[in-house]
Amino acid sequence: PRTYSSSSCKLPSLSRAARSFSTCSAGLGRSSCRAASCLPALCLPAGGFASGYSTGGGWFGEAILTGNEKETMQSLNDRLASYLEKVRRLERDNAELESRIREWCERQVPYLCPDYQAYFQTAEELQKKTLCTKAENARLVVQIDNAKLAADDFRTKYETEVSMRQLVESDMNGLRRILDDLTLCKADLEAQVESLKEELLCLKKNHEEVSMGEEVSMGEEMRCQYETLVENNRRDAEDWFNTQTEELNQQVVSSSEQLQSCQTDVMELRRTVSALEIELQAQHSTRDALESTLAGTEARYSSQLAQMQGLISNVEAQLAEIRADLERQNQEYQVLLDVRARLECEINTYRGLLESEDCKLPCNPCAPGPVPSKPCLPCLPVASCGPGAVRTTCSPRPICVPCPGGRF
After folding, report:
1. 3-state secondary structure of 368
2. pTM of the complete model
3. Residue 362 per-residue DSSP state
4. Are 391 and 381 in contact (CB under 8 A)?
């Protein structure tokens, strides 16, 4: 490593520093100062502090070039005072903004949801009344339907009885016609019996027997024959009449039984249909009541959902405003932090300048001479104004030397 001694590299005073500078330019991200022999301990930073200098070399370089230390220090003090005043003003503004934010937060009343309990109770009571009225209407409708079904049932029964009466009347008319036919047959048979009796009498008159024995025997024989014939005819007529009557009675009984069974089946079917229709009407009324209840519930929950969405939208809007205020305050705080950092950097620079006033060296910087046998101690870096610039201390007294490679 390269070593520098006090005999080979000496710093000039501030009044004679103009001869030691050739160029001093600010770069992006760092500063570089190049001199013919040695450089002063201060190198201008390229960050926030370098921006305070308007010209290429900076006002500090110009102040050094003027050779007037008092004017330079006065300018630096004025600059420092203006920056301190700016810092105090920014602190006052920051405190005022914080107090305003605190007052606004204290004044800001949290949004309270309006109390709709009374309206909800009134709506629930009206809904209960509506449901009771609907249930009563459904019950009346069911009763009306039951009455209609009962009337239809009685009408059906009446029509059935009328049809049965007509059937019985038709059967009675048929039986009456049969009775008339049988009466006519009986009358014909009686007429035949009378005619046979008259014929018998005529035969008796026409055929008188000479002998009483023979007449008695012949008359008895003929009478027996005719009586047998009449008895046979009468028996045949009665048998035929009884047979026809029994057949008709059997037909009437079977028809009546069939009619009764059919009527019973029809009545059972009608009762089943009536019960099913009543149950269907009850199910329809129940479905209508449930649909109305569902519609009311959906409407109520839709209104409540709309209210909650409105509340959520208001809260989100307030959160967005608060977030925007926080971001703005954060940006202002970052700006203040940047200003504070620049001011601290400038204050450190001024402190380094004030400390460098005590460094009074000969006017002949970096005079060539023999290198001492005992080299200087290695340079120890200390805090400086900005990146790239180091202030070193060498035995026996502090001097400023360029960093290896020409970087500070």
Report:
1. coil
2. 0.27
3. -
4. yes
